[in-house]
Amino acid sequence: MSAAESRERERIATLLHDEVGALIVRIRLRLSEWRHSDAPTPSSEVDDVCSWLSKLSHTVRTLTTSLAPPAWHGGLPSALGAMAQELGLGLDAQGPQVTVDTSGPDFDVAEPVRSMVCRVVRELCLNVLKHAKARRLDITPRVMDGWLCIQVQDDGVGLPDKPEVLGRGGAGLGLAGARAQLRALGGSLHLRWEPGRGTCATVLIPLPGHPEMAPDDVVELPARSLP
C-alpha cells in the first residue's frame, strides 16, 4: 500500500507539472504577447486560450476528485453513481450512455475500500472514454459468496494486445496500478474482450468474515451478451 501511495503521489506530481504547469505557462505567454501587441487579437487565438482554460479546469477537477472525492459516500452503489456523474458519463452526446445498476440491495464496505474501489472503477471508465469508442457502459456492483464483485462492461472496440499500457501518462492509475491496489486487499481484476465486440472488466475483492476463496473459483455475474 505504501508503494501504491508513492506511485500515486508521483502521478499527481507529474500531472501537475506536465498538464497544469504547462497550460499555465502557455496561457501566460499568450496573454503577454497580447499585452505588448497593438494589433487586434485574432479570434482563433482567443479560441485557443479558451480551450486551454477549459482543459486546465478539467484537469484541476480531475486532481481534486482523485485527492478528495466529495460524494463517494453512502452505500457503494450510490458512490459509484456519484463517481460516474463526476466523469460526466452519459451527458455528452459523443460519449457512451452509462448505467449504474442499483436494482440490487444497497450495501456498503469500509471507507478505505469504497474509495479504492471507486478509483479503480473510475480508471476502467476513463479507459472506456479514451479508447473504446463505446455507445454504452454498464456498471454492476454486487456481493456474491463473500466477495465484492463489480463488472464494468462496454460495447466498444475491445482492448489492445497489451491492455496494461492503458492509462499510462494520463489522469488515471493505469491498469497495472489498479491491479496492485486490488492485490493489496487480496482482490483481483479480470478482463475479457473480443475485438470490435466490447470489453467486460470484473473487479473482485474478498469481504471480511467470509471463507477465503481463490478469485478464479468465484462465478462472475452473468454478463450482458457482447454484440
Would you mind describing this structure in some detail?
The protein is an alpha+beta fold. The chain has two domains: 2-67; 76-217, Heat Shock Protein 90 (2-Layer Sandwich). It is built from five helices and five strands; from the N terminus they run αααβαββαββ. The chain is elongated, with a radius of gyration of 20 Å. The relative contact order is 0.12. The model is unreliable at 167-171 and 211-227 (pLDDT under 50).
Poorly predicted segments:
167-171, 211-227
Q: Helicity level, as a percent range?
A: 40-55%
Mean pLDDT: 77
CATH class of the largest domain: Alpha Beta
Strand order of the largest sheet: 1-2-3-5-4
**Number of separate helices:** 5
For the sheet with most strands, the description reads: 5 strands, mixed
In the CATH scheme, what's the topology name of the largest domain?
Heat Shock Protein 90
Strand content: 15-25%
What secondary-structure arrangement, pairings included, does this model have?
Blueprint: H1 2-35, H2 43-67, H3 76-87, E1 97-100, H4 111-132, E2 136-144, E3 147-154, H5 175-184, E4 188-194, E5 198-206
Parallel strand pairs: 1-2
Antiparallel strand pairs: 2-3, 3-5, 4-5
Provide a quick synopsis of the model.
With 227 residues, the protein is α+β, with helices and mostly antiparallel strands.
Descriptive tags:
single chain; 227 residues; alpha+beta; Heat Shock Protein 90; 45% helix; 16% strand; disordered C terminus
